[in-house]
């Protein structure tokens, strides 16, 4: 793995992966169109460009592409063209990669492709998306499989990485963990959608990056792979933990989300069979780390 190109490299996960791989001595080319605000500093050498401007020649000398660029808001996808944007970007990158000399392509999708079905959710489960965002990611999964089947594995490898609910200090404030932490810090009620019984597989950013590093260090890529903790927490429990952790806040129940998913739990057996035990930071410790580092970053971001 001599040269990795990362799209969405200024974002929450992309910037953390860029930093970690560079610390390992890997040559990383970061690409991001900067259309999505990010709490993290931009990586050095960032190419500020649309993924759809990439050509096969841009991948000369690149061994692996990690495609993280996306518009990821599920609620926004019901009224914005998230589906059209993400599928156009994903399809362009697939065609560019297939025409290049690069060897591996990892495309990030989401646990949202599974929809509402009993877990733990294995990679062999059917795809039952329930939002325009999730439909777009499911379309990318199917398109990736088309290219994978038509390409000799000894020439190029394709895989989709189904990310579960990664959180951490520099995540955007539209996600549940930072939204709850910011509300508690400001003395506002924590907005719990519906009754809060919906459960999520919360994975600290350090654990997600650790798993991605192991995948990238491996020799073979499976067609699809879950990246999560394998454990769930309800949104109500999360709110209660953050109130206990911060000593501030109250719970305010709001309207339930359209087509809400009752639970996401990753079945991590495929990952464990290929890459070893799943790293899992204790949730309370991970929330405390997120609170402390986020609080330290907020004044500088407010001053921008």
UniProtKB/TrEMBL annotation:
Domain NAD-dependent epimerase/dehydratase: residue ranges: 4-228
Gene3D superfamilies, per database record: NAD(P)-binding Rossmann-like Domain (3.40.50.720), UDP-galactose 4-epimerase, domain 1 (3.90.25.10)
InterPro entries: Epimerase_deHydtase (IPR001509), Lipid_A_modif_metabolic_enz (IPR050177), NAD(P)-bd_dom_sf (IPR036291)
Protein name: NAD-dependent epimerase/dehydratase family protein
Species of provenance: Streptomyces eurythermus
Taxonomy of the source species: Bacteria, Bacillati, Actinomycetota, Actinomycetes, Kitasatosporales
